[in-house]
Specification:
One of its GO terms (cellular component) is membrane. The protein is an alpha+beta fold and 357 residues long. It contains nine helices and twelve strands. The strands form four sheets. Strands 1-5-6-4-3-2 form a six-stranded mixed sheet, with helices on both faces. The chain has a two-stranded antiparallel sheet with strand order 7-10. Strands 8-9 form a two-stranded antiparallel ribbon. It is globular. The C terminus is likely disordered.
Length: 357
């Protein structure tokens, strides 16, 4: 395993972030004194560079995939710079020691703000949540079309959106990411990857369309619904059984012309949340061909919400779904449709998220 990683690190790459010795990692973390969070992926520590900036140091646990997650992270996030993508400052690979050094995000993950307990975190306003959603969309669009290679994240979810001191969001955790030539509309995968509840259906159902950047669009839609509803999409603890799966319930309410209960939200806030929900429902259409691109999503978010049309129902009952297939789907996801302008388990990888609480 380690020979494969070293081969990758020694390959010509002018954009490679700084390589640190393990002794440097120990110094910047003050001998791993300030632990931020621990998970199946390893442990994240707070650190400080000699030049002064704070960093988050992710010490990785044992790899399940021949070091592929480490390589994916360095190969993708190490070569890009965008306001809405967390910056990889450097890394360490020394024997069995593997670490990733990121810019520090003092407000942690978006997850704790949208699923918050009243006494734990600051409440984010509707306007701030909308701004965060738009910025996330711009970050994903950059991954898909702003780089020399298209980068598919495959694990867009609230836990992997980190917030800086101004609550500006940045995408993190590229351990499942894949790079593909921009001309490749369909990508080849040997196994499904992502987090159940956010994974696009084409990742495990063969005959609804090929795997493409539209998988990230689906994940963004599920994230957007959770931001608008300020709850998990799947919540068996709700009072009414019909509300257990939020996307299905909210679609039924809107299709019947019912207003969505949003506490003491103002009329403008209700319109903003409805806009987010409608866009999210377009993003989670069952077939990839029926989902917008992230560029179109940005256009919809920035446009007039009153012009958005109700999308088709994006779900089928489980007994209407085709049987899951082990292989990837066909090749129709590059087609485009006309869009009106209108806790869960991760698959294929241990959780490498960097929630800094």
């Amino acid at each position: 395993m380690y020979e494969n990683i070293e081969d990758f690190l020694q390959s010509p790459n002018n954009l490679m972030p700084v390589r640190y010795a393990y002794s440097d990692i120990r110094k910047m973390t003050n001998n791993f004194n300030d632990k931020l969070v621990e998970g199946g992926y390893g442990t994240v520590f707070k650190g400080k560079l000699r030049s002064g900036p704070l960093v988050a140091v992710k010490m990785l646990g044992k790899s399940k995939a021949n070091g592929q997650e480490f390589i994916s992270e360095v190969a993708t996030i190490g070569r890009i710079h965008h306001a809405n993508v967390v910056r990889l400052v450097g890394f360490c690979f020394e024997g069995s020691k593997r670490a990733l050094v990121y810019e520090f995000m003092p407000n942690g993950s978006l997850e704790k703000y949208i699923f918050r307990k009243e006494t734990e975190t600051t409440s984010l306003s509707c306007e701030k949540l909308f701004d965060i959603a738009l910025a996330i969309a711009k970050g994903i669009d950059y991954l898909h079309s702003g780089c020399e290679m298209q980068i598919l994240h495959f694990d867009i979810k609230p836990h992997n959106v980190l917030l800086d001191e101004r609550f500006a969001p940045k995408l993190s955790d590229f351990g499942l990411a894949k790079l593909y030539p921009t001309e490749n509309s369909i990508v080849s995968l040997t196994a499904a990857r992502g987090t159940l509840g956010y994974m696009a259906p084409e990742l495990y159902y063969k005959n609804i369309g090929g795997v493409s950047y539209k998988a990230d669009v689906y994940s963004f839609g599920m994230l957007l619904l959770e931001m608008a509803g300020k709850r998990k999409n799947l919540n068996p603890l709700v009072d009414q059984r019909s509300q257990i799966f939020f996307p299905s319930w909210v679609y039924d309410q809107l299709s019947k012309g019912n207003s969505i209960e949003m506490g003491d939200a103002s009329e403008d806030e209700r319109k903003m949340f409805k806009k987010m929900i409608l866009i999210a429902l377009w993003c989670i259409q069952m077939k990839p061909i029926n989902r917008p691109s992230m560029n179109k999503v940005i256009e919809m978010l920035e446009g007039d919400g009153e012009l958005l049309e109700m999308p088709p129902k994006p779900f089928q009952n489980p007994d209407e779904m085709p049987a899951p297939e082990a292989e990837d789907g066909g090749n129709d996801a590059e087609e485009t449709a006309d869009f009106p302008l209108l806790s869960l388990d991760r698959v294929d990888s241990s959780d490498m998220s960097m929630d800094q609480e």
